[in-house]
Amino acid sequence: MSKQLKVALIGNPNTGKTSLFNRLTGLNQKVGNYPGVTVDKKTGVSNLSKTVKAKFIDLPGAYSLNPTSLDEDIAVKVLSDTSNENYPDVVVVVADAQNLKRNLLLYTQVKDLGLPTVLAINMEDQMKTKGISIDITSLEKDLKTKIVLISTKKNTGIASLKEVLLDHKALSLEPCFRYIEGVLDKRDQGKKKQKHRETIKRYQFLTDALNKSYTVNRDKATDLRAKLDAILTHPIFGYLIFFGILFLIFQGLFYWSEAPMDFIDISFASLSEWVKSSLPQGTFTSLVAEGIIPGIGGVVIFIPQIAFLFMVLSILEETGYMSRVVFLMDRIMRRYGLSGKSVVPLVSGTACAIPAIMAARNIESWKERLITILVTPFTTCSARIPVYAIIISLVIPSQNILGGFLNLQGVTLMLLYLLGFASAIMAAAILNRMLQIKSKSYFVIEMPDYRLPLVKNVVVHIIDKTKAFVFEAGKIILAISILLWILASFGPTKEFNNAEDIIKKEYVDLNAEDLNTKIAAYKLENSYIGILGKAIEPVIKPLGYDWKIGIALITSFAAREVFVGTLATIYSVGSEEEASIKSKMQKERHARSGKPVYNLASGISLLLFYAFAMQCMSTLAIVKRETNSWKWPVVQLVFMTTIAYISAFIAFQFLK
């Protein structure tokens, strides 16, 4: 490859810009941050010819280059700052054939920057069913550019787009709309009024151009959108359908992922046992078998559930249904001092609170934005799934109810999700009364057309998100697993160093296997990690937890999913048996009473603690960055931890 072009993709939300990016780049994508900000930047590489490849930059969705949000501000900076590493050689503006006039406002602004600009009109496959026809030659003449009709769904027009990009130097750099000369009064320059009048003049220009080249014959349209919207956004049936979909999702999370999860769990247990039996005995073998493998296994086991969740979320987004959910929820949010714009972060929070909090940047009202940032971590994120899944499987029976239609474990998981969302709403209502900040806001959302999910988009989304979950969490878990193994394998006291002699004197009649188990347990209790756990045990004992769970609570502050990996490492140290994580947790007993550590009371207590607790230092860091103050993350941490402790305490004391 002798040359690499830099191509920026920009467009209004819901025009298919990201779908085009996925079509062009496939899995050759990287995710990073724009310099100085924490908004995701996606780049990908694609071959345009045998000698030329292109680096595609997927810019945030924007309605115009008159920035009213951080996303639009980023787009402006990338397209106007020639010193920026992402400054493009050519820009592709993606527009939707059904909303062409509105989409072309952004195009005229990009074209006026003096960059080679291509217009890609998406959804060509739907033009016939919508009764749309476009005179491409006439429109190209008025807009002074090359236009390519594409369909990201049918994968048509992509080759033509690549040909245009290869010949981008032939594109006209002449602005398609001169708005300064003879259009605006000089006294308006630099004022807000200027932008308003400029926008009006741009739309007048676009109206004249489209009147000659763009027609819609409604008699030929075969659109079912209005009928579907009437059902899916209905004030009663809309909510019933939404909660029905949620219910099916959570039933599937347990039912369809149970077999692969069990297979992964047993495989890691077998791998650990194989390492012990195959490698020479010693410190390194113990580290690998008892520390690294169980720790990593504690994350990998949840890949089926995480992948399933992201698959469903991607399908709902691809079909256009998620926009209807946001519209539905706006009716609820306004009662609690929020607008529908707050629903986007709350819904996004089911994947991860960090990008969800960053999504609040498009909320103009500071009060609404602050409340949204503070309550979003209550929604159940994917990092909670490993904790929920393992605890539910231990303390909630896999029992079918209502004639086999419902599974009790799936119902429990759905209730936890609803609890998280309800908690966020209640917290928002409290904050709305407490925060004396005057502000006004409005809610506007675009309803995209319904369409079948693009398989490639769904697959890329699943792989991208699952890979991020595994590798990002894996880095932390690997480091913590090694640290935990060291703390659990060594100790400062005589009891630890003389554990074998002490246990042999106390238990003279035990067989060799039971004796080794007693020695391992005694050494663990007197190791560094045992001493630390015993120190915090009085605080967590009223919640039904022992010192081992206490250690997991501390380490999971790095990332919630570390909870399972921590317990897997602790329970594996000194263990000679080949057993899965789940079976080890089932066999765990309190030292004095001999009762199971994980029962209904302690299990529900743990579920509630993780439902409310702010067990994520990365989220706290993002809150600090978004609010530009340590005040709000500290308030958030104290408030959520207090609620978590009280809820867990009440649940355990009531159920024990």
How would you describe what is shown here?
By secondary structure, this protein is of the alpha/beta class. Among the domains are: 218 residues, Rossmann fold (3-Layer(aba) Sandwich), CATH 3.40.50.300; 183 residues, no CATH class. Helix content is 57%, strand content 9%. The protein has 28 helices and 11 strands. The strands form 3 sheets. A 7-stranded mixed sheet has the order 2-3-4-1-5-6-8, with helices on both faces. Strand 5, helix 3 and strand 6 form a beta-alpha-beta unit.
The average pLDDT value, as a whole number, equals 80
**Secondary structural class:** alpha/beta
Q: N-to-C terminal Cα separation, in Å?
A: 68 Å
CATH topology of the domain at 3-220: Rossmann fold
What CATH architecture label of the domain at 3-220 applies?
3-Layer(aba) Sandwich
Instruction: List the total number of helices.
Output: 28
Sheet with the most strands, sense and barrel status: 7 strands, mixed
Taking all Cα atoms into account, the compactness measure Rg is 29 Å
Uncertain residue ranges: 34-38, 180-190
- Label the overall shape: elongated
Number of strands: 11
